[in-house]
Amino acid sequence: MTRVYGIPTSRTANFIKFQRDPLGFLVDALPMGDVVSLRTSSLRPTFVVNSPDFVQEILVHQEQHFRKGRSSNVLRRTIGDGLLTSEHSVHKQQKKYLIPVFYKERIQTYAQIVRDETLRLADSLEEGQPVPMHEIMMQLTLGIIARSLFNTELAGDKAELAEAVDVTIRQSAGTIFSPIILPFSVPTPGNVRHKRAIRTLEAMIYETISKAKQDPEAYADTMLGLLLDTKDESGGSLSDQEIRDQMMTMLLAGHETTANALVWAWYCLERTPDALHRMYAELNQIREKEEQSGQQLTAYEHYREMSFTKQIVQETLRLYPPAWAILRESNRALDMLGDHFPNNSSFLISPYAIHRNDKVFGDASSFRPDRFDGGVSQWARFAYFPFGGGSRGCIGSQFALLEAGLIMGTLAEKFEFTSSPGQGEAIPEPLVSLRIKNGRWMVPKRR
C-alpha cells in the first residue's frame, strides 16, 4: 500500500501559497500523509516528506542516491565549494580533514572564548536601554567564530561584517525558491549588493590567511591552522581559494544560525515565566556551588552543570530550527519503503513542520523545555533533527549547543530581557535560516 498522497490543491495554488507562506504551507501538509506529492511536472516531481522513516531513508540509508542540487548551486555563489555545498566524494574528503576542528578537547577550549566574549557584551549593556537583540546576537556569535576558529579579533569590524553576512543570506534566500535564477553576472541591484558583501567578507578572510602564513604558530590550534597544514590527495597544500571557501562556510553557517536560535530563545522565555525562573534557579545553584567550594568552574564545567538551560536550547531548536527546510534531489530512480520515485525527484524535508507533530510531542506548539527531561532517544530517529542527519549532518552541532547554552547562561546570570513595547508577536521569517521578521528589540534589566 502506497504511503504517497497527492495534495488536493492545484499546482498554481500550491506555488502561490508556498511563495507567500512557506512555513504555513509545510505545516498544513503535515497531516496529509507520510509523503505528499505536489503534483508537479512528471519529469521533476516534487514531494514533501513528513515521516521520520522516510527522512532517514533520504538522509542516511540511501543518501548516496541524492544530491543537494539547487540549494547548493545558489549557496555556492557565496561560499564556493565548502563543506556546505560540496557533494559526495569531495564532501567526504573535506569533512574528514575538518572533523578535528570540533573534537571535544577543542570545544572545551572554545568554551572559554564563548564565555569571555559574552561577558564583554554583558559589560556593554545598559539597564533599561533597548537593544536590537538580533543584531547583538549576530555580532556576538560572529566574534566567537572568528576568535575560536580563526584566532581573529574583529573589534570594530563586527557590525560591518555582520551586515555583509545579512546581505548574502537575504540574497541567497530570495534566490533558492525563486522560479527564475538570474546569472550572478547580471548587474541587478541585488547582485551588486551581494557581490559587494562577498568582497567585504573576503577582505577579512584573505587578510587572516596572510597573517596565518606569516606566523603559523599563532594559529596552530585553530581551524585556519589546521587547513594550512592539510594536504590534498596529491600531497599538496590546500589552495587559498579552498581555505577561503571553508572559512566563508563557517562564517555563514556557523554563527547566523546560532544567533537566530538565541533570539528565539529569549523571546520564548519571556512568554514562559516558569521556564525562565527554573533557568534562574539553576544558575543560582551553580553559583552557590562555586561559592561553597571556593573554586570557580571553568567555562566548559559551567556548561556541563546547566542541564535545564540545555533543554531550553533544545526546545527552541524544536520549535524554531534554524535549518527549517532541507532539500534533496534524486540522481536515479529508486524505491523507498515500498514506494517508487522517478529519477530527478525533488524532496522537501521540513524540521520546522515535523517538529510540530502533536502525535509525537503532544501540545507541540507550546514551549516546554521539560519535554527533553527524558532526552531525545524517547522519540523516533528524525522525529527531532534540528541539525539534519547522515553524513551531511551539521559537523559543528556540539559546538553550537555549547555556544548557545553558554551565551544564555552567561547573560542570564546578569540580565532579564523583555521585548520593547509595540512589536507584537514575533513572526518567523524563513530565509536561509529561520529568523524573527524585522528582528526583536529587547530591554535588559539587571537581576
Topology:
Elements: E1 4-6, H1 11-20, H2 22-29, E2 35-37, E3 46-49, H3 52-61, E4 66-67, H4 70-79, H5 88-98, H6 104-124, E5 131-132, H7 133-150, H8 158-176, H9 189-214, H10 223-229, H11 240-270, H12 273-293, H13 299-305, H14 307-319, E6 326-330, E7 334-336, E8 339-341, E9 346-349, H15 351-354, H16 358-361, H17 397-412, E10 415-419, E11 428-430, E12 434-436, E13 441-446
Organism: Cohnella abietis
InterPro entries: Cyt_P450 (IPR001128), Cyt_P450_CS (IPR017972), Cyt_P450_E_grp-IV (IPR002403), Cyt_P450_sf (IPR036396), Cytochrome_P450_Monoox (IPR050196)
Cofactor: heme
Architecture overview:
The chain is α+β, with helices and mostly antiparallel strands and 447 residues long. It has a single domain (4-446), classed as Cytochrome P450 (Cytochrome p450, Orthogonal Bundle). Helices cover 53% and strands 10% of the residues. It is built from 17 helices and 13 strands. The strands form four sheets. A six-stranded mixed beta sheet has the order 1-2-3-9-6-4, with helices on one face. A three-stranded antiparallel beta sheet has the order 5-13-10. Strands 7-8 form a two-stranded antiparallel ribbon. The longest helix is centred in the middle third of the chain and has 31 residues, at 240-270. The protein is globular and about 65 Å long. It starts with a strand and ends with a strand.
